[in-house]
């Protein structure tokens, strides 16, 4: 690990970023060049003390997940991400798994959507990053590991994962996720991660039955109904932005202005991820 070069790299990248780049107000009294350390630490999901020690050349060797979080928080390009890993004494992630790295342009768009439910997912339904309101609406989806990172895997192995949709909508959602997995399998072939997911699910009778239908229709509905335990059912428009380089999708959920759904979404923005209880 080259602590001096790592510290210098982190500092220069932090100073190159502006508050507007990540959806933060500049403020009239800001004197810092670029972002503050505490702002970058928040973007990376780590403590200010931990990030500060790295930038001062006296921190511990960061793990690969921590480096991935830093790359995402600093909006690094793929070459910059690889350089970060190498400075920290790790091998750069294989470019074959580039769909794990969110492009800076996508992150800049997401940063401007902090008051909107939005998230970035891979073609396997793995959630890479969410806005706070997306977490409040859909639950935290970035902490899963292994096959459970994929929505379709959780759908057929964990019944509680379906609670986000009304019961009457669930059969169609299951067919949609399966069709999307089939499309990913067709693109990647037998040795792909999609193929590994299919193999992992092959012993689940419900999945096997849906998979056997060989449905390839694009069922990705623009309007979705979300069941939330505190505010009830919300009917939301779901717009999708596809990054053709990585295959990642940016999902943005909005409600018709002035509608009851917009009111519910506004209430959700207030209560966040907390669950209300009665005495």
What does this structure look like?
- By secondary structure, the chain is an alpha+beta fold.
- It has two domains: 3-93, 434 Repressor (Amino-terminal Domain) (Orthogonal Bundle); 105-271, Beta-Lactamase.
- Helices cover 43% and strands 11% of the residues.
- The chain has twelve helices and five strands.
- It has a five-stranded antiparallel β-sheet with strand order 2-1-5-4-3.
- Helix 4 (64-73) packs across helix 5 (78-87).
- The longest helix is centred in the middle third of the chain and has 19 residues, at 170-188.
- The mean pLDDT is 85.
- GO terms for molecular function: DNA binding.
- InterPro entries: Cro/C1-type_HTH, Lambda_DNA-bd_dom_sf, MLTR_LBD.
- It comes from Cellulomonas rhizosphaerae.
> Low-confidence segments, ≥5 residues, pLDDT <50?
none
Spatial ordering of strands, largest sheet? 2-1-5-4-3
Mean pLDDT, rounded to whole units? Answer: 85
As an assembly, this protein is single chain
Main sheet? Answer: 5 strands, antiparallel
Total beta strand runs: 5
**Radius of gyration over alpha carbons?**
20 Å
Order of helices and strands: HHHHHHEEHHHHHEEEH
Distance between the termini: 54 Å
The outline comes out as globular
| CATH architecture descriptor of the largest domain | 2-Layer Sandwich
Strand content is 5-15%
Approximately how much helix is present in the residues? 40-55%
CATH topology of the largest domain: Beta-Lactamase
Can you identify the CATH class of the largest domain? Alpha Beta
Number of individual domains: 2
Count of individual helical segments? 12
Pfam family, one: MLTR_LBD
Protein name: XRE family transcriptional regulator
Organism: Cellulomonas rhizosphaerae
GO molecular function: DNA binding
């Amino acid at each position: 690990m080259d602590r001096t070069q790592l510290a210098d790299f982190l500092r220069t990248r932090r100073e190159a970023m502006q508050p507007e780049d990540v959806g933060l107000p500049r403020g009239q009294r800001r004197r810092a060049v670029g972002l503050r350390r505490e702002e970058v630490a928040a973007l990376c999901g780590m403590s200010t003390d931990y990030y500060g020690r790295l930038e001062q050349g006296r921190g511990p060797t960061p793990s690969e997940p921590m480096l991935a979080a830093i790359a995402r928080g600093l909006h690094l390009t793929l070459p910059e991400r690889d350089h970060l890993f190498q400075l920290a004494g790790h091998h750069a992630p294989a470019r074959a798994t580039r769909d794990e790295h969110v492009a800076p342009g996508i992150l800049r768009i997401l940063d401007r959507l902090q008051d909107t439910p939005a998230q970035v997912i891979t073609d396997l339904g793995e959630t890479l990053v969410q806005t706070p309101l997306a977490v409040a609406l859909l639950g935290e989806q970035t902490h899963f590991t292994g096959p459970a990172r994929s929505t379709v895997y959780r759908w057929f192995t964990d019944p509680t994962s379906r609670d986000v949709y009304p019961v009457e909508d669930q059969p169609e959602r299951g067919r949609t996720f399966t069709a999307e997995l089939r499309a990913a399998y067709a693109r990647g072939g037998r040795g792909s991660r999609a193929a590994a997911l299919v193999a992992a699910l092959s012993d689940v009778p419900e999945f096997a039955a849906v998979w056997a239908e060989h449905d390839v229709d694009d069922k990705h509905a623009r309007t979705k109904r979300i069941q939330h335990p505190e505010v009830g059912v919300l009917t939301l428009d779901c717009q999708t932005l596809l990054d053709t380089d990585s295959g990642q999708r940016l999902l943005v959920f909005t409600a018709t202005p002035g509608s009851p759904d917009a009111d519910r979404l506004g209430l959700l923005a207030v209560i966040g991820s907390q669950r209300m209880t009665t005495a």
